[in-house]
Amino acid sequence: MVPIPLPGTQLVHVGRQPIFDQTGDVVAYELLFRGSMDAIEAGRRDTYATSQVIVNAFTEFGIDEVVGDRTCFINMTREFLVGELILPFGPEHVVLEVLETVEVDDEVIAGVTELVAQGYKIALDDFVWGSGHEKLLPLASYVKLDLLDGDLTHLDEIVAACRAYPDIKIVAEGLETGEHLALSNRYGFELRQGYVLSRPQVLTAQSLTPSKLRRLELLGALTAPDADLDKVLRIIAGDPALTMRVLRASNSAAVGATSRVSSVRQAVVMLGLPHIRQWAMLMVVDDVAEATETQMADALTRARLCENVAATFGAAGDAAFMAGLITAVAQMLGISPASMAHQLPLTPEIEQALERGTGKIGQVLRVVNAYERGDLKEVAAAYAGQDLSGTVMAAMKWSTMAVAATAQGAA
Question: HDOD domain: which residues (predicted)?
Answer without folding.
Answer: 208-392
